[in-house]
Prior knowledge:
Layout: E1 2-9, E2 20-27, E3 32-37, H1 43-50, E4 58-63, E5 66-67, H2 73-76, E6 80-83, H3 95-101, H4 104-107, H5 113-125, H6 141-155, E7 159-163, H7 171-188, E8 191-195, H8 199-205, E9 208-213, E10 216-221, H9 223-226, H10 229-236, E11 241-245, E12 248-252
Parallel strand pairs: 3-8, 3-9, 6-7, 7-8
Antiparallel strand pairs: 1-2, 1-4, 4-5, 9-10, 11-12
Helix pairs in contact: 3-6, 5-6
Amino acid sequence: xxxxxGINQSYHRDGSNLILKNVNLxxxxxxxxxxxxxxxxxxxxLLGVMANNIKPVSGNVLLDGTDVTKIKTKEIAKKIAFLRxxxxxxxxxxxxDLIEYGRFPHxxxxxxxxxxxxxxxxxxxxxxxxxxxxxxxxxSGGQRQRAFIAMILAQDTPYIxxxxxxxxxxxxxxxxxxxxxxxxxxxxxxxxxxxxxxxxFAAAYAGHIVAMKDGEIHAEGSPTEIITPxxxxxxxxxxxxxxxxxxxxxxxxxxxx
Length: 257
């Protein structure tokens, strides 16, 4: 379980201009939790604080009951896999090499038989076995994103943090990616926290949605509870029209006919 208690965060040394303001949140296990909100709402910052990549001004994050600041970085990496919004790699490496990086918290760079099995399993799960020797620069954007997901699969953590994983993906690959994330929860029992800009992807695939505005949690709940004009209009400073399709709310960004 991940618990966020009274988190305040600022990038100013004096603690002014808070990016996060008294944030309290409990992440639901074995579920997709989507963080949504306008640019600058604090979504990515909250993700970084939960992973102990960003030190808060005040407050605590508990990882399975222990304050993350008391846990060694290597041990956190065995529990939380973090795929950042930008993960540009300048060196020329293969898909297989990339996935092997996921085993570093377990092996320190010396792959064991268990590590090799984890890499092979990740390749197979993400249907990348035929591309294992291909260079990242030679494959499509969708395939590259699957390779990064395979890397965090090989890391073998119960918690997976994804910061805007649909960036630069077209509709087809975005749908494929979210279906993969669903499988990680349903088949492997992972707990996924994902930052999304597309409200409809959050509505379609997340089990729990956290709507943020100006560094605070404006509302949280199921898609049917959050994808409403009463919640979304003030969060995004825009008037939405909500319809439903196959039992799921669908957000339209134009006036209803």
